[in-house]
Amino acid sequence: MTDNSRARVRRRVVGVALGVALVAAPGTATGTGAERRTEVREAVQAFVDIGFAGMQARVHDERGEWVGSAGVRELGEATPPSTEGRFRIGSNTKTFVATLVLQLVEEGKVGLDAPVDDYLPRFGLDRRITVRMLLQHTSGVFNHTGDLYPDGTVVAGFPSTGPEWVDQRLRTYRPDELVRFALTKPALFAPGTDWNYSNTNYTVAALLVEGVTGRSYAEELRRRILGPLGLRGTVVPGTRTGIPGPHAHAYYHYQDAGQWKTVDVTRQNPSLVFGAGDLISTTRDLRTFFAALNSGKLLPARLLAQMRTPHPEVGYGLGLFVETASCGITVVRHNGSTIGSGALMYSTLDGRTTLTASVTGGDADVDLVGDFPRVLRRLVDAVFCPARG
Predict the structure, then answer these.
(1) CATH number assigned to the domain comprising residue 83
(2) Looking at 5, 69, 82, 91, which residue is catalytic?
(3) Is 341 a catalytic residue?
(4) Residues 229, 235, 240, CA angle at the centre, nearest 5°?
(5) pLDDT value at 326 more than 90
(6) Whole-angstrom Cα distance, residue 85 to residue 53?
(7) Integer Cα distance of 380 and 46 in angstroms
(8) pTM for the complete prediction?
């Protein structure tokens, strides 16, 4: 993988350092089981220690369920985040959308290696771009939230960071507007010849679902996944800017004209990432969904295997990453972020052990290059490596 390719994968989560003790939710295991959860508790607290305002986490394994939170629900208060709170799940949305598309493949309504143009002719997409390429980010289509070309040229997209995003965070975008904008930019590479994480791929994928079924992406999601699995905490917000129900506040700490500012960005219009990062959910619902997916309840074995066959350079399959914990256990995951918040979603291949979590930003920066990967690895190992959990 080239340095330019690595640079294209961006995390945009910010937080604040607060020395607040982790609070375990009622019903947490006791006795020997509780002692074995110590490392998980400490790993969750470590996210707050490096600068996030708050975190909630849920673990399922052979010992049962553990839930806990650390930090605060809102700056200036002492109340910890609710372990049943809703949050923006960012790019975890992509796993839901990939599952929808693969269900249509199983039904014979979509060809995984068919040209996307067959289903969405209005965009005039390069006919070499297949459905598989959308789901694996190998289409070469420019990312409408901004992208980096192989020669190092940075090209801005619709505002997605900084003061311009803050000023326009309640703006409504239409899905076709996002796609047509992306297509005004040159492709990053010929379809299928490289890898680049592009939100536009999944906006197109969600529109493909709509074009094939004749129903909205939100309706298909409710009909095929949310309803059957009983995911009552998961919301397709459309253009609605608020988060319904209990939730922690999310803050954005950024520079404007050389001055640091912090703004509450809990309210934001998710239409900028239609199909790519717009869903709202809970740790409970994410756990139910990901366990069902990986245990074979949503897709047949042959398509689940394709979903979990990673691109050789980056470990990305069709809507999820495949990686190895430090103890050698293979896990699948898709983390996500929006400005001010982030989400984690991990599972073993059989769906029996899962980790789902959310973090919220505050009034200071988090070191996303050094500290964040370190505490994330610590948490993943605490959950998935038995000798360390």
Answers:
(1) 3.40.710.10
(2) 91
(3) no
(4) 170
(5) no
(6) 15
(7) 12
(8) 0.91
